[in-house]
Amino acid sequence: MLYNIDLPYPNQVTIDIINRIVKNHKEEHFTNDTIKNRNLGKNRKYELEKYYSNYNLTSVNCYIDDELSLECSKQYGDFFKSSDVGYSIVTLDNYSPHKGNSYLLPHVDRGRTASINLLLECGGDNVITTLYEQISIPEHYTTREELPAQYALPENLTEVCSSRLNLSEWTLFSTRNFHSVSNLESSRIILSITFWTEEFSSILKKYDSLLIKN
């Protein structure tokens, strides 16, 4: 499930830092080769490349920045008094728009249990985030030294919910659930608050006062 969270918008100092990170990111050059650069194993790599050969794949990058972490800790530290929390900028990019909208594969994130994301740039008018039913994840995928993500084929997953997330709203979800992003037209920029090890059920209980209940 996706949960809306009541947190303040980043202050101007944080926004300036984010703009610097995003500017540097956009000035660099990336390939749109998110599968071939992953050490997925020959059989799994072949299976994914075969299935996704008709897709324009989204390029994903994550930036952990000391200035960003310091400023976010000042602004949000009172909400999350835990060494288990980190801050980063996540970028999703469609580097081949001539091929149509791009697709971020269903995946579970490396080395984190949950994330609270603030959408700063949508990347299109109809970008859809989809969560799938949680399945068993090998324990070693909870360590930061392992793969950036583990991928799965959509037909092997059960969809839980799909949503077009709103700009400037905080959203909490379990990154141990497979999730995907589709219909990306350009670039999607996210400020992410990461929980590295705490179980999602514990996060929901601990920060129940921050949940926006409809």
Question: What tags apply to this protein structure?
Answer:
214 residues, alpha+beta, Jelly Rolls, six-stranded antiparallel beta sheet, five-stranded antiparallel beta sheet, 4 helices, 11 strands, 21% helix
Q: Can you walk through the features of this model?
A:
The protein is globular, with a radius of gyration of 17 Å. The longest helix has 16 residues, at 12-27. The chain is built from 4 helices and 11 strands; from the N terminus they run βααβαβββββββββα. The protein has one domain (3-208): Jelly Rolls. A 6-stranded antiparallel β-sheet has the order 1-9-5-11-3-2, with helices on one face. A 5-stranded antiparallel β-sheet has the order 7-4-10-6-8, with no helix packed on it. With 214 residues, it is α+β, with helices and mostly antiparallel strands. Helix content is 21%, strand content 31%.
CATH topology: Jelly Rolls
Q: Sketch the topology as an H/E string, one letter per element.
A: EHHEHEEEEEEEEEH
Envelope shape: globular
The total domain count is 1
Count helical runs. Answer: 4
Nearest-integer average pLDDT:
82
Using only CA atoms, what is the Rg? 17 Å
Oligomer: single chain
Please give the alpha-carbon distance between the first and last residues: 14 Å
User: Mind summarizing the main beta sheet?
Assistant: 6 strands, antiparallel
Strand content is 25-35%
The assigned CATH architecture is: Sandwich
Q: Provide the CATH superfamily.
A: Jelly Rolls
- Measured as a percent range, the helix fraction is 10-25%
Q: Low-confidence parts lasting 5 or more residues at pLDDT below 50?
A: 29-45, 138-148
Structural class: alpha+beta
